[in-house]
From TrEMBL:
Residues 39-50 have a biased composition (Basic and acidic residues). This is DUF3344 domain-containing protein. Residues 30-50 are annotated as: Disordered. It comes from the Bacteria. Keywords: Signal.
Length: 375
């Protein structure tokens, strides 16, 4: 349901809507995609409190990786529950979701949805999609408790298309602790994205709580797409996912992305999806090790190296990303792409990623990388 502000609806009504919208609305299912890049059958959508990072897609091909992403909740700058500080936060000011009474973003014209957001997927001319995966996640406990049973399904619409129901096709990460009740789910959507191409994609009905709490409301989605293009550089493309919580007892996580060898001064990009980042709270870092020297901290003007998980959706080399809504501070959702050229200055025998935090608890969900290769 389209609304110019973040929704402030009675929580009892929303709980009913959450239970009924997907089951009774009669949305068609998304077209099936192949079992996976490795040909293995899909796992049932069970829940696990921790999912170690594993390779989801890996290929050496002429092409690259792109993504679209947006947050599902935000502060209210207008209407009931409006906060004067919200406008500054939306414009990129230092703020965290726990400072606000948070509401749903809802940009579509469908009266059956209560949260919906859009983002543009950009593909080069003559690119051919050969893998696409949709990730979504959120905090289920804020001013309300959302039922975990609804976490494994969302609505997904291609550019100019109608909603299709998408169901998680692998185990769902779900972990409660520190006042939050976090989850991440995902599904292969290769067939739909391959047929639809670039443009504005919409995701609705993410199972995310609204309101105010000491942890804050946060959630969002990221569509990760690998493509082939004959005249693009030969690259190693890799998508990894898991569900790892960082807190006072477990302050860092490392993921070894492996080889092949990468030439000195090669081009490369690294994408990260994380939850509960807080802009202005320093102490979280993203480092890459290559086997050819010390690790290199990643960061840029939008993501300082000492506050790298700072509630942003950025891409270091593409300029502003078209989204609806398009607030600079997402208040708890990170989907960022970083430049790897500095880390690859001396070449690499392998890529290893390490994410750490000193203060703010984080949940890490996705890593994706592309790097020019040599043999």
């Amino acid at each position: 349901m389209r609304n110019s502000v973040f929704l402030a609806v009675g929580r009892g009504v929303l709980c009913v809507l959450a239970a009924l919208t997907l089951s009774a609305a009669g949305y068609p299912a998304a077209p099936p995609s192949p079992a996976g890049a490795d040909g293995e059958p899909r796992a049932a959508a069970e829940e696990r409190s921790r999912i170690p990072f594993t390779r989801r897609f890996d290929a050496v091909q002429h092409g690259g990786i792109v993504r679209a992403a947006n947050a599902a909740v935000g502060c209210r700058a207008e209407g009931p529950g409006a906060d004067p500080a919200c406008a500054a936060a939306r414009d990129g000011g230092n703020a965290a979701g726990r400072q606000f009474d948070m509401g749903y973003a809802d940009v579509d014209d469908d009266p059956r949805t209560y949260n919906s957001t859009r983002a543009e997927l950009r593909l080069p001319d003559r690119a051919r999609v050969n893998y696409a995966r949709l990730y979504w996640g959120a905090n289920l406990r804020v001013g309300e408790q959302k039922p975990p049973a609804d976490s494994g399904r969302v609505l997904f619409a291609e550019p100019g298309g109608q909603y299709k129901e998408v169901l998680a096709d692998t185990p769902i990460g779900h972990r409660a602790g520190g006042g939050a009740d976090a989850f991440q789910a995902s599904a292969d959507v290769t067939a739909l994205v391959r047929d639809s191409g670039p443009g504005m994609y919409t995701v609705a009905q993410i199972n995310v709580a609204m309101g105010r709490s000491a942890v804050g409301a946060w959630g969002g989605w990221t569509l990760v797409v690998a493509y082939k293009k004959d005249d693009a550089p030969l690259r190693r493309l890799s998508v990894w996912d898991g569900f790892e919580a960082l807190d006072a007892r477990h302050r860092e996580v490392g993921v070894d992305l492996g080889g092949p060898r990468v030439a000195a001064r090669a081009g490369g990009r690294l994408g990260v999806v994380a939850y509960n980042g807080a802009r202005g709270v320093k102490g979280d870092a993203l480092a890459v090790e290559t086997g050819n020297g010390k690790g290199v901290l990643l960061g840029n003007k939008d993501n300082p190296s000492d506050d790298v998980m700072n509630s942003s959706i950025t891409d270091f080399d593409s300029g502003p990303i078209k989204r609806r809504p398009a607030y600079l501070n997402t208040l708890g959702y990170d989907s960022d792409v970083f430049d790897l050229r500095g880390a690859l200055a001396s070449g690499a025998d392998r890529l290893s990623v390490r994410i750490s935090t000193e203060k703010n608890p984080l949940w890490i969900g996705v890593l994706f990388a592309e790097a020019d290769v040599r043999y």
